[in-house]
Write a structure and sequence with these properties.
The protein is mainly α. It has a single domain, classed as Cobalamin adenosyltransferase-like (Hypothetical Protein Ta1238, Chain: A). It has 5 helices and 4 strands; from the N terminus they run ββαααβααβ. The chain has a two-stranded antiparallel sheet with strand order 1-2. A hairpin with a 5-residue loop joins β1 and β2. α4 packs antiparallel against α5. The protein is elongated, with a radius of gyration of 18 Å. The termini are far apart. The model has no long low-confidence stretch (mean pLDDT about 90).
Length: about 180
Amino acid sequence: MGKRLTKIYTRTGDDGTTGLGDGSRLSKDSLRIEAIGAVDSLNSHIGRILSHGAIPDAVRGCLENVQHDLFELGAELCLPGVTKIEDSHLARLERELDGFNADLPGLKEFILPGGSMAAADAHVARTACRAAERTLVALARSEPGGDGGRKYLNRLSDLLFVLARVLNRAAGRSDVLWQQGKNRG
């Protein structure tokens, strides 16, 4: 790792710009910076899930790996032209997704966000993941770059949906099922 921060504030962003890893500066409202922020926000939501005490070890290990991957994705976004999210990351997510989903009952209804607190937080993380994915799609339209990060976030949102179901079961809760027409007169 390069130089360590000894002083947290630098004042270099006071003009509305921020520095990338290659030394260039961008406006803080650029799509690239928006994407970095969206991935950072997602990582914070994953941290919130992990803050719950009764998380199964397999889920904890999976999400800790995801946090490291998201930091790699942030680094990739901070260093234009660098690829850090590779097919091996996608393959691992798919294996995790298949493994967790194999033990769940099949879906016959749509599921609403909720149940246990950890599951509800997983649903919040899932929506943050979709928002980050949309930002990466917009960035790819305006700048050339790899598509590994976008694919990763697409898989991750599916994994977070499944993990919400796993976390509900671990807490002894049921999924919250959508009831079509529930509030019709």
